[in-house]
Specification:
The structure holds two protein chains of two kinds. By secondary structure, chain A is mainly alpha-helical. Chain A is 67% helix and 0% strand. In chain A, helix 12 packs across helix 15. Chain B has a two-stranded antiparallel ribbon with strand order 1-2. The radius of gyration of chain B is 28 Å and the shape is flat. Classes of the chains: A mainly alpha, B mainly alpha.
């Protein structure tokens, strides 16, 4: 018995102490890591401060809005500003809910159409080799290199010829053909195994069925990416060049009008600002990992 | 067609010279035939592509061509376009002082915010990549939010309000740096710098996302191998492993930031007004709107658009050939 104990004592090792700071990578200095955290935290505060300020001023009651020096957070948060949007503007000629509806309609229809049309084109560009396909894709890549402002004036003439001025379609239809969506979708679909498509074909599916039942379910992460970029573009569309009737104008336009209404409307302006910014941000928050998965294949290869 | 191939090789050398042109035509015909047959076989592909292709041609390709055409004409919508040669360009570049201000402002903004925003996107994406997983996903949202928040930048007009109650003015006056409130958005001296700050604040956009995603996709085993081979700190790792791996994303983000940098108009128009004092915040796009949609001189506006188009495409080509050299 004694002997055994003695032997055990000799062999006994130093107990394992969990290191206070675990180093994730062996070639990183801890001081560097700490500096990194502090730096990123500072920058993050700067980045997020205007957004937080917008939200908090939307929640402030009127007396707190004009308090000086200002507080960052509201002391007595209210939803009055939001309800005012519907109450005060509910009595005006074009109600706030109408602006909201216009924007929601334009965004929803435009995004859905863009998703379907761009995916169809991306599918054949990524998976089939046919004359003209590569040339067309190059053209799309070039189209990403200039802003939409370059084509504004001829676009106006074309839409005028089509008779779409002062309708929602003036905004919706051009958004269908956004080159960015096609580009991202095509790059992502190239990662899809060709064997999958061939297998479906052997089983007797035609192209349309392959597209609907095999390809689309497999590129769900890319859907979210197309949706977020399309929503971002359409939700913030001022549409002032194409739409003249007040009752068809969009939320961002209403925002500008409220802000033009002067200092008494500050709270409501902030409330609209929150409505405008919260939708794209929420979509992004809920689909972040899928979007990042798609963006991993976004590079322009030679 | 195999027969023609045999014929080609069997013919004597003397005859070859005479019929060279004919043979070329035969070859071309053959190619066209093959292409035609291929096109027939891939009829379904064209059906799939058609909706996008038609809309894309209608709203992206055709407008660029039309814009170039109209830029050589005088066109005011009411009368049919009248061909006037290069007059639009001559008066733009030689007589239109305001356009030159616009070009100057656009170039200043593009040269500052373009490269800076690009580098910021990469640096922050790279730093964020060092964080543990859950912190990283929060950080991506925080950094990306300003660019996706759309019109949220108008909140800056509250911070930089011109009276003594504007927060920045009040802060500077309390510190005793300035005596009188500064009219940030009406004093030409301060307009551009503030606009550039706002643009930089929004510049972590699509390119940033692409970088974050690309960095996550770099093969871990390369870092381990690098560590064994003697890479000592994160800087060496960045230069020798990360950057060469990120080349496609570098290209993509460059395209994105150039497009953004040259197309500046929303921020300047909404913060500094339209038109701004002394045209100090005028950009090329603002000028384009002015002539296109306020004065309806479409030909002139198209000339502006064409110049902007050429600037962007050339800049893109230059940057791409520059980026091709990364890691070689």
């Amino acid at each position: 018995m004694m002997k055994k104990n003695k032997k055990a004592k000799v062999v006994e090792e130093k107990p394992y102490v969990k290191p206070l700071i675990r180093r994730r990578k062996p070639n990183r200095s801890i001081a560097g890591d700490v500096a990194l955290y502090i730096f990123l935290a500072l920058v993050a505060v700067v980045m997020v401060f205007p957004l937080v300020y917008a939200v908090s001023s939307a929640l402030k009651p009127l007396d707190e809005l004009f308090m000086f020096p200002p507080r960052i957070f509201a002391r007595r948060p209210t939803m009055n500003n939001f309800s005012d949007l519907f109450v005060t503007m509910g009595k005006s000629w074009v109600t706030f809910s109408r602006y909201l509806f216009n924007t929601v309609f334009i965004t929803a229809v435009g995004t859905a159409g863009h998703l379907i049309i761009a995916s169809m084109a991306a599918f054949v560009l990524a998976k089939y080799d046919f004359p003209g396909g590569q040339t067309f894709f190059k053209l799309v890549t070039v189209a990403m290199m200039f802003t939409g402002y370059v084509t504004q004036i001829p676009n106006y003439m074309i839409i005028n010829k089509l008779g779409w001025i002062d309708t929602y379609w003036a905004i919706i239809i051009p958004a269908f053909a956004s080159p960015m969506g096609l580009f991202l979708m095509k790059q992502f679909m190239e990662g899809l195994p060709t064997a999958l498509i061939e297998a479906a074909k052997i089983d007797g599916a035609n192209e349309w069925l392959v597209f609907r039942k095999v390809v689309m379910p497999n590129v769900k992460p890319a859907w979210m990416t197309l949706i977020i970029f399309s929503v971002q573009g359409l939700w913030n569309n001022r549409a002032s060049t194409f739409i003249y009737s007040e009752e068809k104008k969009t939320l961002v336009f209403a925002l500008q009008q409220i802000q033009a209404g002067g200092i008494a409307r500050t709270g409501q302006g902030a409330a609209v600002l929150v409505v405008v910014m919260i939708v794209p941000i929420l979509i992004f928050v809920f689909s972040e990992s899928q979007i990042l998965e798609t963006m991993a294949s976004s590079g322009i290869k030679e | 067609m195999a027969q023609t191939g045999i014929k080609l090789t069997n013919e004597p050398a003397a005859a070859k010279k005479e019929t060279y042109f004919q043979k070329y035509i035969i070859l071309r015909k053959h190619n066209v035939k093959v292409a035609w047959r291929k096109m027939k076989m891939s009829k379904n592909c064209y059906i799939f592509l058609a909706p996008f292709a038609i809309l894309f041609t209608l709203f992206f390709v055709f407008p660029v061509v039309a814009s170039i055409y109209f830029s050589f004409t005088y066109y005011n919508i009411l009368e049919p376009p009248r061909f006037i040669g290069l007059n639009n360009y001559v008066s733009l570049l030689l007589e239109d002082d305001i356009f030159l201000i616009g070009i100057k402002n656009t170039l200043i903004i593009a040269l500052v915010t373009g490269p800076l925003g690009y580098i910021m996107s990469f640096v922050f994406a790279w730093l964020i990549n060092e964080l543990p997983r859950w912190v990283r996903s929060v950080a991506v949202v925080v950094f990306y939010a300003p660019s996706i928040a759309g019109n949220c930048f108008v909140i800056f007009s509250v911070f930089f309000r011109g009276d003594a109650y504007g927060y920045v003015n009040a802060f500077l006056m309390n510190l005793g740096i300035i005596d009188n409130p500064i009219l940030w958005f009406t004093n030409p001296q301060y307009m551009l710098p503030i606009c550039m700050v706002v643009i930089l604040w929004m510049s972590l956009g699509t390119g940033f996302l692409s970088f974050v995603a690309g960095l996550q996709g770099v093969d871990e085993s390369q870092f381990e191998a690098g560590c064994i081979d003697g890479i000592r700190n994160r800087w060496q790792e960045l230069w020798f492993i990360t950057l060469p791996n990120m080349k496609p994303m570098l290209m993509f983000s460059a395209v994105m930031s150039i497009t953004q940098a040259f197309g500046v108009c929303d921020v300047t128009m909404q913060l500094c007004g339209y038109p701004s004092t002394d045209y100090a915040a005028r950009t090329i796009v603002t000028h384009l709107f002015d002539y296109g949609f306020s004065r309806f001189e479409m030909g002139y506006a198209c000339a502006i658009a064409t110049i902007l188009f050429l600037m962007m495409i050339l800049c893109n080509k230059a940057i791409q050939s520059l980026l091709r050299r990364v890691g070689t």
